[in-house]
Design goal:
Blueprint (H helix, E strand, L loop, with lengths): L2 H30 L2 H6 L5 H17 L3 H24 L4
Helix pairs in contact: 1-3, 1-4, 3-4
């Protein structure tokens, strides 16, 4: 086997692990947030985000091709848009 293919497999595996870990972290973070914080931050309800992130995590794990893209989009939207908005309206201990 060529070293190029080995590197490509390693890179895709690393990206998959980062996306799965980031999505799992977002799901755990959403689980620990107060449901009223989502309303106060003018975002979707907590249950909606739990469903979105759960589907993104499952798709990223079980469909590694297109699932990488879907998982990455859900994870990035939560981490870059929802989480900062929740942080502005709540205080973490």
């Amino acid at each position: 086997m060529s070293y190029a293919f080995e590197f490509q497999n390693l890179a895709v595996t690393a990206i998959l692990l980062v996306i799965v870990a980031g999505t799992a972290w977002a799901l755990i973070d959403a689980l620990t947030r107060n449901p009223q914080a989502f309303v106060a931050a003018d975002k979707q309800q907590k249950n909606t985000w739990l469903l979105i992130l759960g589907i993104c995590l499952a798709v990223a794990i079980f469909l590694p091709g297109l699932g990488l893209f879907i998982g990455a989009v859900g994870m990035l939207v939560y981490h870059l848009d929802v989480r900062p908005a929740l942080a502005r309206v709540t205080r973490r201990r």
